[in-house]
Design goal:
Bound molecules: zinc ion
GO molecular function (chain A): transferase activity; zinc ion binding
Order of helices and strands of chain B: HEEEEHHH
CATH superfamily of chain B: Ubiquitin Conjugating Enzyme
Distance between the termini of chain B: 36 Å
Membrane topology (chain A): Single-pass membrane protein
Pathway (chain A): Protein modification; protein ubiquitination
Keywords (chain A): Membrane, Metal-binding, Transferase, Transmembrane, Transmembrane helix, Ubl conjugation pathway, Zinc, Zinc-finger
CATH topology of chain B: Ubiquitin Conjugating Enzyme
Strand content of chain A: 5-15%
CATH architecture of chain B: Roll
Subcellular location (chain A): Membrane
Strand order of the largest sheet of chain B: 1-2-3-4
Distance between the termini of chain A: 44 Å
Number of domains of chain B: 1
Number of helices of chain B: 4
Number of strands of chain B: 4
Shape of chain B: globular
Number of helices of chain A: 20
Strand content of chain B: 5-15%
Structural class of chain A: alpha+beta
Largest sheet of chain A: 9 strands, mixed
Radius of gyration of chain B: 16 Å
Largest interface: A-B, 39 and 32 residues
Radius of gyration of chain A: 48 Å
Helix content of chain A: 25-40%
Oligomer: heterodimer
Chain lengths: ~550, ~150
Amino acid sequence: MPSHSAQSIEIYTIEFPDPYKISYHNDKFITLPANASFQLPITENIQTLSNKDVQKGSDPYGILYVPDLTSDGCKKEEEQYVANNVTRRANLPEHIEYALVAVAPWYSAECMNEYFEAARDAPVKAFLVYQPGAAAGMPPPVSDSSWLMGDGGTWKAQNTFPTYAIVPPTGALIMKGLSEYSGNITDLPYNETLVDMFADTDYVRLWATIGTESGSQLPSLWVFLVIVLGLLILAIVGTSSFMHLMQRRRRNDLQRRVINGEVDLEALGVKRLTVPQEYLDKLPLYVYTSSMEDPEKALPTEPPQAHSNTPTGRRLSAPDLPQPVSSTALSQPTCAICLDDFVANESRVRELPCRHIFHPDCIDTFLLSNSSLCPMCKTSVLPSGYCPTKITNNMVRRERMITRMNRNAADRAHTAHPAPPQTADSQAPLSPRRTSSGFGSIGSRIGGAFNGSRRVFSAPDRTSNRPSEIEMGSNQPAAALSPVPETTPPNQQTTTTDPTNPTAAHPHRREWARQRALALLGTHHVAPADEEESCEPRWKRGLRKIFPGFR
Amino acid sequence: MSTGAKKRIMKEYAECAADTPAGMKIIFDEQNMTKWEVLLDGPDQSIYAGGHFKLEITFPNEYPFKPPVVSFKTKIYHPNVSNDDKGSMCLGLLRPDEWKPPNKVVSVLRLIQTLLIEPDIDDSIEPSIANEYKENRKEFDKNAKDWVKRYAK
Ligand SMILES: [Zn+2]
Ligand SMILES: [Zn+2]
């Protein structure tokens, strides 16, 4: 449907004492009641022929009249359709801007042209036409040959008003109304009530308002859309606040679990943490002594709890304090970071809670600015329950995601094949694949490669486990799932006897590898927290602001 | 990069230079010590025998806390090397979560040599090549040898 097409035309009778007081903008008239005057609502069969100059937001309206013809021939022909006492321009005051709506029968193109010409000279807001004798129902569209004026359609452009076609009976009805209501109160039919109400000299005219799509009334479709939109916004706001509430509960819950020591944010890969200086200062710092010596006789040391505020130098010169250094710590002759050997009675070493020792120069900066985990065993240096940062929605999301992935991986691995069966002869050739190549497994090869660096761990109880220890990271699902610190030497022994260890011969190596892959999924497919956030599309981040639980 | 990291790289290079594993040559630029160029011969017992591969080892600023990054500059048909112009590898101890500071570049290089002899199918970066290795070993060998002829002579 073209825009600005007419939906309805309302015709009613108005009464006003002084025509000079009516203007476009100040309509000083009274609408006469329906039972005592002419009223005609037209709601169907209105064909919009031209919507020229229909202003957005304002419906055309004005006093109905019939424009004057110029040629005698047309005037003669007009008599068949138009009574001689209809409202004409002469019945309306001059030199004042009226709003007018013209109405005329379209009986010939030539005469129609005369009507349009006359209408262009008057303040006409709209033109209603009808074709006398045409078929009932919707008037033909403007493309129909019956609307041709012989000017190629330029009349539409020349006119300064829109043109609407109505059905012939309605047109005739309007013409009849115009002949009856174009004088004073006394000229009216059924005038008894009106005569009492109004002065005899008051004018009575017909008035037309054309309702177009752009009219001031809001079409029902728009009302519907506005309601739908309102409901949608309401639903979004409701969901959003619900999710915000949920997320706050989850944040509090995560914080509680972190404080209770159930969750380690960094070990889980949720958030990279660093160690504040005050915690670092609490970690034991002492002078390295050779592992060959009896730990009891080892030289200057001090307990971890004693040195929160004492400067390093003084701490080191406090030999009378009790001995906290374990043999495990002393059994590491090399700093794993710089690969330099510790010099007995000379090198200062920092011992982490997992008992790994490093040069303070090597480890301190790392802990202060990179990570809170021991670079060797990934055990947190921070005391359990330490909740350093504000728990954010993103951390909650990652924690949930990682826990879920780990749980799924564990479930699958468990239901698929709890553990590959162990053959009786554990010294049997490894998997067929390995033997065929005549080479050890990659894991053991790497382990072999590490024999060169074995001096890192010279403790006798570790040497035997050396290859499998290296494999822990790459080959053992259990290690990938829960970062079990390798701090306690007894645990180390289980590594070699672990039934899931691939070095034990079994025909299900492939299945075992699949489980391993699933188990590793939990850690590998989660990008480190810092990297993930930056590569996320902006819209997703925005959406998360509104719906914080959104994944 | 911290002086500690530089010291460590120097130390590792000195060790490598003193005892370079067979079949490799390390090109070290003291001006840019965080990028090593390695010329690796295809191991004799592998299908890559006769090929010469150029590798690049890049040390991150956080080295040795983070693993070095290995990339094949010479194209190679291998399940564990990405089949693009990066030629990147990401498995075993090269993974950030499996890397530990005491690991050394030389062990990384040995791992690569081992992988040329026997790929790690379960941890492949190119699943289609891994699949071919498993299902159609003949075709894989042919392709790998073709690539050696084409790119690694
Ligand atoms: Zn050190
Ligand atoms: Zn540790």
